[in-house]
Amino acid sequence: MIVTEKKEYSEVRKFINAGDKIFIIGCAQCATSCGTGGEKEVAELAEHLKNEALEITGTIVLDPPCDERICKIELKKHNNALNNSDKIIVLACGAGISVINDLLPNKQIVSGLDGVFLGSLKRLGVYNEYCSLCGECLLSKTGGICPVTRCAKGLLNGPCGGIVDGKYCEVNTNNRCAWSLIYERLTHQNKTKNLLEYQQPRKYNKYAKPNTFNKR
Ligand code: SF4
Ligand code: SF4
């Protein structure tokens, strides 16, 4: 899931002017799981704004806002309210916000969340950062542990010289060194020969092709 955090209310509020009419959009998937943009958070934000005498024209929690097909259908049902709104606050990751922005080109979009990383939910408020979407997944070679994301330096060919006690990351000694974890896992699987293969630098431009981005 895309892990998000709520922006401070004051951060969102500074994009809203006195007298603005506001429509709020939430996300029924990742942001709901993170407790940042579901029904509850949309209602709470609406309440805050109403308490400041701002008009809420409507709210919707899209399932999900990053699916343009669904947004087109669902937003149509709120056409009047959306047309009657000055600002659209979106409680979703950057992908969801961008879809809404594309579909409502004449409206000012205000982002209510910060996208933090792609990871997993351990329990509410506790997440694991697992993937940086590098475009060339290495996990079959590295025992399912991502060095791009979990090594603080994103090293691809073994640990740096700073590893602490052969186990901990010098950048943050509360974290295990990703490469020590990789080594342990590959040893357990009898696959340490994987480490002999030199990993080329990631081709971060792999998906930066003209057809990746839908120009409107
Ligand atoms: S190597 Fe790491 S960053 Fe790249 S796709 Fe796989 S998990 Fe994601
Ligand atoms: S100690 Fe390990 S995880 Fe930390 S930066 Fe060095 S190689 Fe990466």
Explain the overall architecture.
The protein is of the alpha/beta class and 216 residues long. It has 2 domains: 2-116, Rossmann fold (3-Layer(aba) Sandwich); 132-196, no CATH class. The chain has 8 helices and 7 strands; from the N terminus they run βαβααβααβαβββαα. It has helices at 9-13, 30-33, 39-51, 68-76, 79-83, 94-103, 147-150, 178-188, and strands at 2-6, 21-27, 55-62, 87-90, 108-111, 113-123, 126-131. A hairpin with a 2-residue loop joins strand 6 (113-123) and strand 7 (126-131). The two termini are 27 Å apart. The structure holds iron/sulfur cluster (SF4) (2 copies). One iron/sulfur cluster binds next to helix 7.
CATH-scheme architecture of the largest domain? 3-Layer(aba) Sandwich
Please report the first level of CATH classification, the CATH class of the largest domain: Alpha Beta
Helical residues, percent: 25-40%
Percent strand equals 15-25%
Largest sheet: 4 strands, parallel
Work out the count of structural domains: 2
Which small molecules are bound? iron/sulfur cluster
- How would the global form be characterised? elongated
Mean pLDDT: 93
Report the order of strands and helices. EHEHHEHHEHEEEHH
Structural class: alpha/beta
CATH domain fold name of the largest domain = Rossmann fold
Distance between the termini: 27 Å
- For CATH, the homologous superfamily of the largest domain is named as Response regulator
Low-confidence stretches: none
Q: How many DSSP H or I helices?
A: 8
Oligomer: single chain
